[in-house]
């Protein structure tokens, strides 16, 4: 149970870093809403990401990992859509609502990149110093 809580906190920190670093990514809410977003993103990553990676394995071998970034971008878009249905203000270049355009895709890509890097760094720190 503690491991799940630590993962949610790591994802929440990574999402907050993305909100602070990526232009046109906005979160206007309270701390519990950020925790809920992190919990939803953790569930999306736990259930959908392995399926999508398995399905895209043949393409991934040729694209050298770029498919992984594409999958993460799609999962960030899915997260923004689901969170909007819960009436939490987490937007990517003003989406959702509206149409998906290049700005939205770039914001989702950069958010996925920041979340991946921050999550990887915090997970590495956690492995190096297990008491943290």
Can you give the helix content as a percent range? over 70%
Strands across the major sheet, in which order?
Answer: 1-2
Task: Report low-confidence residues grouped into runs of 5 or more.
Answer: none
Residue share in β-strands: 5-15%
Largest sheet: 2 strands, antiparallel
Give the termini separation.
15 Å
In short:
Helix content is 75%, strand content 6%.
Please tag this protein with its features.
132 residues; two-stranded antiparallel sheet; 5 helices
Could you characterize the architecture of this molecule?
This protein has a two-stranded antiparallel ribbon. The longest helix has 27 residues, at 102-128. The chain contains 5 helices and 2 strands. The chain has helices spanning 2-21, 31-55, 57-63, 66-85, 102-128; strands at residues 25-28, 89-92. It is mainly alpha-helical. Helices cover 75% and strands 6% of the residues. The chain is globular and about 45 Å long. It starts with a helix and ends with a helix. It has one domain.
Write the layout of secondary structure elements.
Blueprint (H helix, E strand, L loop, with lengths): L1 H20 L3 E4 L2 H25 L1 H7 L2 H20 L3 E4 L9 H27 L4
Antiparallel strand pairs: 1-2
């Amino acid at each position: 149970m503690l491991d799940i809580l630590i993962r949610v906190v790591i994802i929440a920190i990574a999402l907050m870093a993305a909100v602070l670093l990526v232009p046109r990514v906005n979160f206007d809410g309270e701390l519990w809403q950020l925790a809920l977003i992190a919990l939803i993103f953790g569930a999306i990553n736990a259930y959908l990401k392995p399926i999508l990676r398995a399905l895209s394995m043949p393409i991934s071998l040729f694209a050298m990992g770029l498919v992984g970034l594409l999958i993460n971008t799609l999962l960030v878009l899915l997260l923004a859509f689901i969170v909007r249905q819960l009436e939490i203000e987490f937007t990517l270049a003003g989406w959702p609502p509206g149409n998906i355009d290049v700005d939205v895709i770039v914001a989702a890509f950069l958010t996925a990149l920041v979340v991946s890097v921050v999550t990887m760094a915090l997970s590495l720190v956690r492995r190096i110093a297990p008491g943290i």
